[in-house]
Amino acid sequence: xxxxxxxxxxxxxxxxxxxxxxxxxxxxxxxxxxxxxxxxxxxxxxxxxxxxxxxxxxxxxxxxxxxxxxxxxxxxxxxxxxxxxxxxxxxxxxxxxxxxxxxxxxxxxxxxxxxxxxxxxxxxxxxxxxxxxxxxxxxxxxxxxxxxxxxxxxxxxxxxxxxxxxxxxxxxxxxxxxxxxxxxxxxxxxxxxxxxxxxxxxxxxxxxxxxxxxxxxxxxxxxxxxxxxxxxxxxxxxxxxxxxxxxxxxxxxxxxxxxxxxxxxxxxxxxxxxxxxxxxxxxxxxxxxxxxxxxxxxxxxxxxxxxxxxxxxxxxxxxxxxxxxxxxxxxxxxxxxxxxxxxxxxxxxxxxxxxxxxxxxxxxxxxxxxxxxxxxxxxxxxxxxxxxxxxxxxxxxxxxxxxxxxxxxxxxxxxxxxxxxxxxxxxxxxxxxxxxxxxxxxxxxxxxxxxxxxxxxxxxxxxxxxxxxxxxxxxxxxxxxxxxxxxxxxxxxxxxxxxxxxxxxxxxxxxxxxxxxxxxxxxxxxxxxxxxxxxxxxxxxxxxxxxxxxxxxxxxxxxxxxxxxxxxxxxxxxxxxxxxxxxxxxxxxxxxxxxxxxxxxxxxxxxxxxxxxxxxxxxxxxxxxxxxxxxxxxxxxxxxxxxxxxxxxxxxxxxxxxxxxxxxxxxxxxxxxxxxxxxxxxxxxxxxxxxxxxxxxxxxxxxxxxxxxxxxxxxxxxxxxxxxxxxxxxxxxx
Length: 734
What we know:
This protein is α/β, with parallel strands linked by helices and 734 residues long. The protein is globular.
């Protein structure tokens, strides 16, 4: 490799101080800089926040010519260019070259490069492969090429990009110059793949520890949607005015969460590929400039974003890989202060990720499934999360050094001795004499005769079913323990097949004490369950009973049935959230602004006195305001009713059944909105008959439509009476 010319009087430490203002290097930075200055290829594996960009920015400033930085995202380039221009006297020092440039901007880039003023040029691989780009770069002296986010080269990485596989030939087409590959996440397999593809097998390797000691990792179950939303609001409001990122897998979910946060007083902006590039840039800048506290984003956001004070990273959806999770959480706490990383986990999300891959090539499906399984193992594990993460990246870590900076170490689950079970398990794996997957092994341990067990003839072996007294979760937990202790090998080339390691064989000769907490079994919650299943009530039973008495009194004074005032679920919500003014009452389930104003005063007055007398601390940060699709649907219904559109036509337009429409109408009215359905009722019910039904509802103490059908001896259908009841609630309750 040819050596690049360097001004002899310049020393890296001197330039670091004079140009960048730093007194010293961090970690491996200085060694990397000296390596590239010497004209040597180098592969840099350095965690997010450890200063990868300095490894190529400093030598680029020092060396003759222009350094080419191959980068995957326009947002990354803009951020990096803006950052280094802040240190320079002229903006011509750094440029980016991509499709976002206007013709005049492109001409300026070319002019600055040909004049020799540009020291750093950021370019996307898609732009680099164009003939006109290659022709331009051939006219310029290139100091070296830096391949940022190099894990994109590997199909085993979390963000594989086919264009990255062609980088080597594109670089060779320009000049024979030193190459630096950089990534924040690389398992041993990814590292080997990158080096092989770039022809860097003998390059200098600089690998820093992946441990981010200031990050706190925790996993919570992802249950019903509104419960998770409340947890997110509570989590963020406990960190008032702090910057954070919420990651979601879909654009739709990004928009929904962003809207929900804003409605609950949290300044949030969405970021995803469906937004116009100009809007994405504005949202990114607003986050960097602290005009908004939270970015809700798909995984594209954050690559190279240099915001040091991100205090929390929330994963609403489970990431596709541990590399992705590590890199995304690594955007928190880059200033060295604590960052909180919260992952919501639901096994059904794992199933969804696997379904998304069903149309991909078989090899890609198998790789993807293995990566997803590693993420699931991390979420379900009761072991130290930091130890598991670092083990995944090939780094040994002592569990005691976590300093309670993960939920499993801060709140350890009860452990049991598993020495005998571990020995028995490892012996059985030795006896099987072949590499096998975890599910096959677990089924063998518990004695389940599935097809693959029979095909191998493993059900005929002496120790088949030796562990049937324990369940599958126990054996999966024990296998994960054996993996992190190095007693088992996982063959990545063969999609995670396992066999005993040399350390495992040594352990069998001299077993030592081991104990373990069994991993957590998470409930799988479907999309339908998010909306429908009931959770255990956490309401204040004493207050709830008092509110029922108060409702009875108010109803009697107004000569109305009690349920017309507020229904039981609304009283239960009041006894959970303790609303103390009309605005807060309007946020209670099934109340709404109008009903709160009409009936609410005695209730908020009573609740205020109750809270003060009992010195209750109210959960103000979980008063959930919602909008999203359901609210949009209800607005649509109200507008159509105002236009006097027939109800069956409204249901058809919305793609819902008539029964579902009736449910929505009832919810709208219960929330305090007036509806006039008489234009529809008048088509098949005389006004005097309507009056008769309304009079009945005024005298009954319960909203039981079946009893109403029986009372009128079949003169009215169930649907007719339900519609009349909704009209009654609207007339007298709102």
